[in-house]
Amino acid sequence: MNQRIKRVNIQQMMQRNTHVMYMYLFLLVMVIVSGVLDPDFLSVRNINNLILSSLPIFIVSCAQMIILLMGDIDLSLGSIIGLVNVVFVMLMRPDQPFGYVTALLVALAVGTLCGFVNGFLITKLRLPSVIVTIATSNVFGGLALFACPVPGGKVHNLFSRFVMGRQGFPFPIVLMVITLVTIYLLTSRSTFGMKVRAVGGNQFAAYTTGISIARIKLTAYCLAGFLASLSAIFLTSQMRCSDATVGNSFTVNSLTVAVVGGTALSGSVGGVSGVIGGSFIIMIINNILNLINVSSFYQYVIQGLVLIFALAISSKRKK
Amino acid sequence: MNADTILDMQKISKHFGGVIALHEVDFSCRVNEIHCIAGENGAGKSTLLKIISGLLSADHGQMFLHGKEVQFKSPHEAQKHGIAMVYQELTLIPELTVEENIFLNIEPKNRFSIIDRKKVSAQLAHLMQEYDIELAPKAVVKTLSIAQQQMTEILKILVRNPNIIILDEPTSALAQGEVEKLFHIMRTMKERGKTLLFISHRLDEIFSITDRVTVLKDSRLVGTYETKDLDHGKLIRAMVGRSLTSIFPKPNEIDIERTVFAVESFSVGNKVKDVSFSVYHGEVVGIAGLQGHGQTELLNGIAALMSHTVGKIFINGEQVVANTPWDAIRAGIALVPVDRKTEGLLLELSVKDNLALASLDKRKNSLFLDRKAERSFAKEMVGRLSIKCAGEQVAVKNLSGGNQQKVVLGKELGIEPKVLLFNEPTRGIDIEAKSEFYAIMRKLTSEGVGIIVVSSDLMEVIGICDRVIVLYEGKVSGILAKEEMSEESIMRCAVGLG
Fold this sequence. Notes:
heterodimer, A: mainly alpha, about 75% helix, globular, B: alpha/beta, Rossmann fold, 2 domains, 17 helices, 22 strands
C-alpha cells in the first residue's frame, strides 16, 4: 500500500472518531471541574456510586444505540424497564434461599418478548418504529400499572446484595465490563454489527447484498428488550421494590446518552465507546444537580435541554 | 446452442401493471465476452438485466445457466449462482468504509462471528492489485467521488467472484478519463474469463469495448450483433428504427449586440474563482471540465443555492441581486438539476403536480389553487415538450428517464425563465430523447432565453454549444468558439494546459 492511501486511511479514522474524542475531552473537563468544586466528587465512594447509578442507563443506552444504528428508534425501552421491574418483584420469593431464580428468568424473558413484539410489528406489518414503539410503550406501561398500581414489594436480600457488589464480588464492575466488551464486539467487530449498520445505511443495498432485513431487525429488537430487562433487574436490586413508573425517564435519557455518545439518528454511525462516555456525562450532570439541590422537576427540563443540545451538535456536525 | 454459451434466456416476458416491459425476448451471452444491451429508454434493457440479477422475476419464459434451468427469487440467490450486478443507484452504505462495504455479508470471520480484519485487508489489497484499482480501504464511502464509489461497488462485486457481471449504465456519471479507467478494469475482467453485460447510451463506448451488442426496441428484441459487423449508422437504425443523420439541431443566429446574461468576477467559496462570461441572444454556452473542477458549484452559485458567493450577475443588462433561490427564481434564473430523481421531481406525484410546482403562485384564485388553470397549464406543457405519458395524472415515477427530464424542464419553464441552467441535461436518456431535448433548447434560445449547459459528455458539449467555457480548479482555463471546439482542445483546457 502506498503512502498516500495510508495517509487517507489515518485521516479518515481520525475524522470518524472526532466526535467521541471531543466528548471525552468534555467529560474530562467535567470531572476536573467537579473535582475542584467538590473534593468529595473524586472519592472512591462517589466514584463507586457514579458507576452504580450509571450502569442501568448505560445498558439501556446500548440497546437504544443498536436500534438507532438500524435507523430506527425505540421509545418503549422505559416502559419495558417498568414492566420487567414489576414482574421481577411479583415473582420474587424473598424468604426462600433461591427465591429469585424463577423471577430472574421470567423477567428476562418478558423483556425480550416485549422487544420481539416491537420487532414483529415493525417487520411484519412494515410500520415505522416511532409509531409502533410509542404504541407498545403505552401497552407495556399500562400492563405494569395494572399489575402494580402502587409501589411496593420486597427483593431477595442476598440477590440484591450480590448484584450491588456487597458480597465481596465486584458484580457491578464486572457487569459493566462484560456489557461493554460484548456490545463492542457485537456492534463494531462482528458480522451482525455490520448488517445492522447496513440496514440503517441503505436498505436496498442490504437487500441486494443478501441481508435479511426482517431477521436483523427482529434480532436487534429482541436484543434491545433483553438489555432493557437486564438494566431493570439491576435497577430493581438497587431500589429493592417495584414501581411501575421507574423506567419512565429512561426512554429520553437513553436517546440523550446515545446521541451525546455520537450515535447518529440517521443510522449506521455510533459505537459503545461513545455510549459509555455519554452515560457518565449524563449521570455526572444529574449528580451535580443533586449535589446543588436542584428540584427534580427542573432536572426533567435540563434532561430535555441536554437532548436538544446534543441533537443540535450532531446536526451541525453532519453539515 | 453454442458450447460457449453461459446464459440463455428464452421468450422472457415481463409486465408492470398494464405496461409491457419485455415481450418474448430471447437473449444469450458467452463466456469471456463484453456484451452491450442497447436501445432507447423504456426499451426494457434495465428490466432484462434485473431479471438476470434476480431483482425482478419474469412473468413468462425460461432462463438457463450452464444449460440448467434456473429461477432466482432474490439478488442474493443469483449471486450464489455467480451473477452479480452493479445497479444504477449504487448499493453502498454511505457511512461505512470502503472495506466494510466491499465485504458486507461475506466477511471472513472466526467462529464467534468476529470479523477477521487482517484477512479483509489482505484479500482487498490483493484484489486491488489484480485489477489495478487504487482506493483507501478505510475511507468512508460518503466522502468519495462518484467514480471512486463506483470502483468500490465494482470491488464489492469482484470479491464475490461472479462469472457474470452486470453493469447498468456504469459510464453515465463518469467523466472521460474515468471511463477509460473503468474500461481498463472491464477488459481485465474479461481476460479473467468473465462475462460482462452492460448498458450504455454512448455509441463510441459500445464500439470501443464490446464484442457483441443486443438491441431492444419497444420491449422486443431487434437482434444480437457482432460489434465488428456494425457501424454507427447501422446501430442507430437498429435502435431507433430509422437513421438519425444528426441528433444536434442547427445553431441559431447569434446577436452579440444583445447580452442576455452575464456574470462578473463570480466566486463560490474556494470552488469557483473569479469567473466572468456572458451569454448572447440565441446562444447556448457550455461549461466543461473534469469532474469536480467547479462546474456544478458555478451553476448552483448562479441559482443562489450555495452560500459564500461573490460577484455580479446581470440579466438583460440589469444587475440582479439573488441571495436566496427565491430571489433567483423571481429574477428569472431556472435550474434543471443534475439528479432529476432526487433534486428535480416528486416521483410519487403526478405529471401535472410536478409541472405546476415551481409556478404555483401564478395560478392562484385568491387563497386557493386554480385547478382549471393548473390543468390547462399542464396540458400545454405536455404538448409543447411532447412529454409521452398516459395523461397528466400519471405519477412521474412511471415515466421513462427522458420524459421525466422533460417534466423537470417543463416545471422550470413555468416560471418563464430568462436564463436556463442545465446540469448534465441528458444523463441516462436515450438518443431520440436527447435529440428532442436539444431541439427544445434551440427553440428556447431563439425565443431569447439564455442557456448554460454543464456536461461531462464532450460530444454533447461540441454538438449543442456555441461557445464553451472550460474550468480548471475553479478558474476559467479557456473559452472556445464553435470552430475551435474538439475533444482534444477541450481536454487540453480541462487539464490546465489551455
